[in-house]
Amino acid sequence: MNIDDVLKIFIAESQELLQQMEDALLQIEQNPHDPDIINAIFRAAHTIKGSAGLFGLDAIVSFTHVAESVLDRIRSGEMAFNDTLTALFLQVCDQLNALIAHVDAGGSLDELEPALQKQGVALTTNLSHYLSGELAVAAAAPQRATQVVRESSDTPNEHWHLSLRFGPDVLRNGMDPLAFLRYLNTFGQIVHIVTLTEHVPAADEMDPETNYLGFEVAFATEADKETIEGAFEFVREDSQIRIFPPNSKTVDYIQLINELPEEDLRLGEMLVRCGALTQSELEKALLKQSEPEASPAPIGEVLINEQNVQPQVVTAALQKQKQVKDNRTAEGNLIRVDANKLDQLINLIGELIIAGAGTQLAAQQSGAAQLVESTGVLSRLVEEVRDSALTLRMVQIGTTFNRFQRVVRDVSKELGKDIVLEISGGDTELDKTVVEKIGDPLTHLIRNSMDHGIEPASVRLERGKPAQGTVRLNAYHESSSIVIEVSDDGGGLNKDRILRKAIERGLVSDNQSLTDKEIFNLIFEPGFSTADQVSSLSGRGVGMDVVKKNITALRGTVDLDSIEGVGTTTRIRLPLTLAIIDGFLIGVGKATYVVPLDMVEECIELTSDQSSAARQSTSDYIDLRGDALPFIRLRELFAVEDEPPRRENVVVVNYAGNRAGLVVDQLMGEFQTVIKPLGKIFDNNRALGGFTILGSGAVALILSVPGMIGAIAQRQAAPSTAMTINS
Amino acid sequence: MSTDVTTALLPSSGEAERQHLTFVVKGETFAVDTLCVREIIEYGQLTVVPLMPAFICGVINLRGAVVPVIDLEARFGGVRTATTSRTCVVILETQDEEQPQVIGIVVDAVSEVLEIPLEQVRPAPAFGSRIRTDFIQGITKINDEFVVLLNVSQVLSISEIAGLVSNPQTAMAFGSARTALPQRSL
Q1: Helix, strand, or coil (residue A38)
Q2: Residue ranges of the domains in chain A?
Q3: Quick one: fold of A395-575?
Q4: Residue A532 touches partner B, C-beta closer than 8 Å
Q5: Is B160 left (phi over 0), alpha (psi -120 to 50) or beta?
Q6: Are B122 and B105 contacting, i.e. CB atoms less than 8 angstroms apart?
Q7: Mean pLDDT: which of A288-302, A314-328, A458-472, A529-543 is highest?
Q8: Which residue range or ranges hold the CheW-like domain (chain B) (predicted)?
Q9: What pLDDT does residue B98 have?
Q10: Which chain B residues are within 8 Å of A715, Cβ to Cβ?
Q11: B59: distance to nearest CA of chain A, Å?
């Protein structure tokens, strides 16, 4: 496997973990003692450290290690989270993010930018204050492995300790205990030996064929426990052989246990895997456990009582077991899939839908009832496959929303305002590609709300509002669009001031009468600076035209509502998906067009009287049950030259509260369509949303209703402004 | 145009001839390097795209991919060619900002694939040609007839074509000017 690929996975995973860590840190402010949250933070730090070690990213390992040590103290209850500590750990998060970004960019950790390095040192020093001296030293060590080595060489007890009590009959069975001791020398060295003679009776009572001796052996070897035990294979039955690993080994075992793959292992298996316990010891212990007279003690206890394993090792194993279980529940049943594979699947399903539509058309033309029926079933299934394939790309917007907790927290501290972020509708799902691109515009809007919207506490109290300001993020679905609302309970927009500014800038003329909504939406115009509106912090967080541009690029819209003194709400409306839509087929001249079905409200007939009446009055609207419905004649817009049919139809479309009629020749019914991207040549054609391929194999154009209406509105608005300039 | 077109055309391997596809548009013969020709298909089932410059005939479905088709004669500034039974669409592949772009061109008839000796290719004359000089890579003579070697990346320049529809207002006006406005003024 390519190391770069693995590194990419590490980077992605670490970023995710850091996000989780940050979320948890923000939560901990409310519940400083919640063990679940503390564990989540610890786990994130621990995993990052572990994986970074695998890649030899020592700078990350040593830095995380300090943080982890502090977290460990918190976890064990020695100290608790407070505001300073939370803030410190948020900085740790940022630092780790920066380090990982540096790795991601292909940089070497040895040559960090000085600022990053300085920050790292400062944080380490800060963190060390929370550690006892000895831990701080450990933290300074670059790698954990060297740490372990040093420990083992420093401590005197680095030998295996063998406690041998050969059975009395061992000589009679033809075994010489001395032979075993000599054999030990073949794969190690007996450093020290004590012979236990207290069982030797007086000389006349002594049976020369009976063994009375025991040995305590200090044994230095590279071999593992299994090999040592193997040496005593033949005498195990009637002798007591206890093998104690050296102290350093205990550390190794614990580390090994921590590094075991995340499998659901039994305690015994786990200990065997890391070598702290041999298979035969385990079997013996299990046998003991199942003895009828024995109390039903857990296997861990049995093993400790039998002195097979050190208590620390068992504790570590038990902890690991719990961690595995915890992770299992946290991860649920998620599978990580390459986004490209998913795209490929969706493309294929797109082809399938086109092919299916073709088959169905052919079946209907053939008139074979059975065939029509079976293709009907098939197309229903394909539709279901399409829907579930599309949901694969869907992610909940909650993760994106939660990210703003941090933004709000930081900005409110910066501004010295007490502002809380309320989130709702976090489980609303939308396409991943859209989610990725919505972050920046949202940050803009939230910063704007906090900076310009919410008043200082004194003003708020004066106005009878609670001192704490609220910014709300909300998301919901509305007719296959997703709506994201950013609202605040601040001062709202000053209509007159915006209007005055707009007139000053020549965006509108004096005598133009605008609705409130139109006035508010002026702030999305490029060149409209709000600098006059706010005295403090002017010039930052503005750029509303950039917000609008970003959202328009996603084929979305943005508009704004505000009540002075009460608050402002910005609404972003985005398409749910960019791949497949349900379409409504219409015919104009010889061509077929597709209108997204969710925009179609109804279809009505355009009588020739109405048509000619509209022509007479030179105004393009008809009477729809008492309301004036503006309409667009697609024949004229698309310059179709042949004769119009006797009967025309109006498709009433609704987009973002704007209603309009499209005058078409023919209504051809619903059709499921795969959106094929326009390609560069047609990108600038605002009337088009994309292409699709019909069952017949012909290409049909998908109309972009908002684009078309927008372009026409602009075209009609243009002459009127020209007139005002003249006057 | 630079005068050393022939050397520019020469590949590094030093081959003296290059295969070119020749075709006829409005009685004139043109040639394109076979390396950029993907395939030649029958003219048919073309979907017109409204509000686009006149030389863009529309789009076709090429085995599931939507491919724009351009009328070469109209691109050169003339009127659209009338289709006959011999009308073909030549599918070409060009590079635009490192991205391969597939575009079809409508031609009156496809003639043959010829080995054109590169030393016989002359640079385009500074004037006197019916078409823009930057569309011409070079001119050669085959059977006593002048053949224009087209500079495909210029003729099918995506950025230039896209720029022609960049302004929605002109595009809209462009579309409606022909029929809508005269009617409305009644």
Answers
A1: helix
A2: 3-142, 160-331, 339-393, 395-575, 580-723
A3: Heat Shock Protein 90 (3.30.565)
A4: no
A5: alpha
A6: no
A7: A458-472
A8: 17-161
A9: 72
A10: 168-169, 172-173
A11: 7
Q: From A686, which residue of chain B is nearest by alpha-carbon distance?
A: B168
Q: What is the pLDDT of residue A108?
A: 73
Tally helices (H) and strands (E) across chain B.
6, 10
Residues in B touching A633 (Cβ below 8 Å): 180
Task: Tell which residue, A215, A231, A223, has the closest CA to residue A159.
Answer: A223
CA distance B47 to chain A (A): 6
Closest Cα partner for A489 from A560, A569, A426? Answer: A569
What digits encode the pLDDT tens for the residues B83-141? Answer: 888 899 999 998 877 778 899 999 999 999 999 888 888 888 877 777 888 888 899 98
Structure tokens at A246: 């050296």
B68 touches chain A (CB under 8 A): yes
Q: What total number of domains does chain B contain?
A: 1
How large is the average pLDDT for residues A201-216? 79
Chain-chain contact of B64 with A714 (C-beta, under 8 angstroms)? no
Mean pLDDT of A528-551: 58
Rounded to 5 degrees, what are φ and ψ at A478? -145, 115
Measured between CA atoms, how close is A512 to chain B, in angstroms? Answer: 22
- pLDDT tens digits, A118-145: 888 888 888 888 776 444 444 444 433 3
Q: What tokens were used for A288?
A: 């003991």
CA dihedral A246, A252, A254, A260 (to 10 degrees): -140
Instruction: Give the C-alpha separation, A147 to A157, whole Å.
Output: 16
Q: A684, B166: Cβ pair inside 8 Å? A: yes
Residue B93 touches chain A, beta carbons under 8 Å: no
CATH of A3-142, one of 3.40.50.1580, 3.20.20.30, 1.20.120.160, 3.10.129.10: 1.20.120.160
Structure tokens at B92: 């070409």
Q: Tell me which chain A residues have a C-beta less than 8 angstroms from the C-beta of B44.
A: none
Phi, psi at A93, each rounded to 5°: -55, -50
pLDDT at A524: 80
* Contact assignment for A680 to B49 by CB distance below 8 Å: no
